[in-house]
Design a protein that fits this description.
The complex is a heterodimer of chains A (about 220) and B (about 220).
Chain A lengths: L2 H4 L2 H37 L5 H13 L3 H11 L9 H26 L3 H9 L4 H31 L11 H11 L4 H30 L1
Chain B lengths: L3 H6 L1 H34 L3 H15 L3 H11 L9 H27 L2 H9 L4 H31 L11 H12 L3 H32 L1
Helix pairs in contact in B: 2-3, 2-5, 2-7, 2-8, 3-5, 4-5, 5-7, 6-7, 7-9, 8-9
Classes of the chains: A mainly alpha (about 220), B mainly alpha (about 220).
């Protein structure tokens, strides 16, 4: 074990570079999956015949598949039918598909937490169903959604490490590169990388808990 | 259209992977249930150092990726001359990771049992350990079952990363078949179906249980 050699400035900046990619990919994915998951969640919540059923099926199937399978599928299987993406795009697409299903459920249960009387009241004051959803139900539901979305972002930061299998140059991948240089690097680098993930995620989990206390 | 001959010709391999995935997940579930229960009791026991150990374990493990635990066991431990097979390393990693989540579920279950139960048990002469084992835990289990079901679903999904250490589970067998047949798309679809055979019924069951529990309260 060689802590000083492992923590050389070159190695450290290489790891930070990787962590930056992890954070960027996770941030882009959570924004995209908030939009797609929002649409899926609202469609499932709204109980429109057929359409709600379809969105429920999509959500349940994606949620119950391993993320790794989705990553492999986007990167290795789609090119077989002529759809090719770069490594970064594949990672973002796979994470977005998976997280959309997760966020859809969070958004739906946020909407479900708004009492049904609110919809009836909105409707009877002359608003259309969509207006009621947009102006009455959503603003009240959003408050309940924020803490679980922050928790989901923690999962996403951890899950981004799986993209190392398609050689996305994120933190886990860069750590493996440094580890491959010398057996003396392995333990110091694992400790450092685990701490990097831990510090960021722990701070986020405290934020989630604070928000939860505020909304309940 | 999907090529079903891929499925029928390689059915033995798919089945082997499917059974291995179930096997790994069960082993890891049992291990993480035991470890998770101990950690949950550590966290609520009236002994400060135990609280700290429990809290540090849960908070640390929950906030790092499963993959780093797996790599640590598989490539880090050999530095100390401890060499484990991919299967054993993978099962251990899943166990260590999932225990943190199960500990939280069990802790929430225990805390949901009214305080008076503990006081009543203690004042009828039971020790803290006896009261925990005979009075509190049996009541907590009911509340813990749905989150445990969810953790089992996560275990089945997470076990897919064992493909990285060649542990022979479903994802690995899928990769093997696709590298042998040069067909990727269809093979991954079949792999997905095999995963869903395990996870979809479980997830429906957990939803039912949650609804029933919510009604009974």
């Amino acid at each position: 074990m060689d802590f000083i050699g492992a923590y050389s400035p070159d190695n450290l900046s290489f790891l930070v570079e990787g962590f930056w990619i992890t954070i960027k990919v996770a941030a882009i994915s959570i924004v995209l999956s908030f939009i797609i998951g929002g649409i899926l969640g609202i469609l499932r919540y709204a109980k429109i015949p057929v359409i709600s059923m379809i969105s429920a099926c999509i959500i349940e199937i994606i949620r119950n598949l391993p993320l790794l399978l989705i990553i492999f599928f986007v990167y290795f299987a789609l090119p077989e039918i002529g759809i090719k993406f770069s490594v970064v795009a594949s990672a973002i697409i796979a994470l977005t598909v998976f997280e959309s299903a997760m966020l859809a459920e969070i958004i739906r249960s946020g909407l479900n937490s708004v009492p049904k009387g609110q919809i009836e009241a909105g409707r009877s004051s002359g608003l259309s169903y969509i207006q009621t959803l947009w102006h009455i139900v959503l603003p009240q539901g959003v408050k309940k959604m924020v803490p679980p979305i922050v928790s989901q972002f923690i999962s996403l930061l951890k899950d981004t490490s799986l993209a190392t299998v398609i050689a996305l140059p994120e933190l886990m991948h860069n750590a493996q590169v440094v580890n491959a240089q010398s057996i003396n690097n392995i333990i110091p680098i694992f400790i450092l990388v685990a701490l990097m993930y831990f510090v960021v995620n722990y701070i986020l989990s405290i934020v989630a808990r604070r928000l939860e206390l505020k909304t309940s | 259209m999907l090529d079903f001959t891929i499925l029928s010709e390689n059915f033995d391999m798919f089945l082997e992977g499917f059974l291995n995935t179930l096997y790994v997940s069960f082993l890891a579930l049992i291990g993480s249930f035991v470890l998770g229960t101990i950690l949950a009791i550590f966290r609520i026991a009236p002994i400060k150092p135990l609280n700290w150990i429990g809290t540090i374990y849960v908070e640390f493990i929950r906030n790092i990726p499963l993959l780093i635990i797996l790599f640590f066991i598989f490539t880090g431990l050999p530095v100390f001359e401890i060499r484990l097979s991919g299967f054993v390393a993978g099962t251990l990693a899943l166990m260590i990771y999932t225990a943190a989540f199960i500990a939280e579920a069990i802790r929430a279950g225990i805390l949901s049992v009214p305080k008076g139960q503990m006081e009543a048990a203690r004042s009828s002469g039971l020790t803290y350990t006896q009261a925990m084992w005979h009075v509190i835990l049996p009541q907590a289990i009911k509340i813990v079952i749905p989150p445990l079901g969810n953790q089992f679903i996560n275990l089945v999904k997470n076990s897919s990363i064992l493909t990285i250490v060649a542990a022979g589970e479903l994802m690995y067998q899928g990769d093997l078949i696709s590298s042998r047949t040069f067909v990727t798309f269809d093979v991954y679809i079949f792999v997905a179906v095999f995963y869903l055979i395990i996870t979809l019924p479980l997830s429906l069951g957990v939803n039912r249980l949650e609804k029933r529990l919510a009604q009974s309260n």
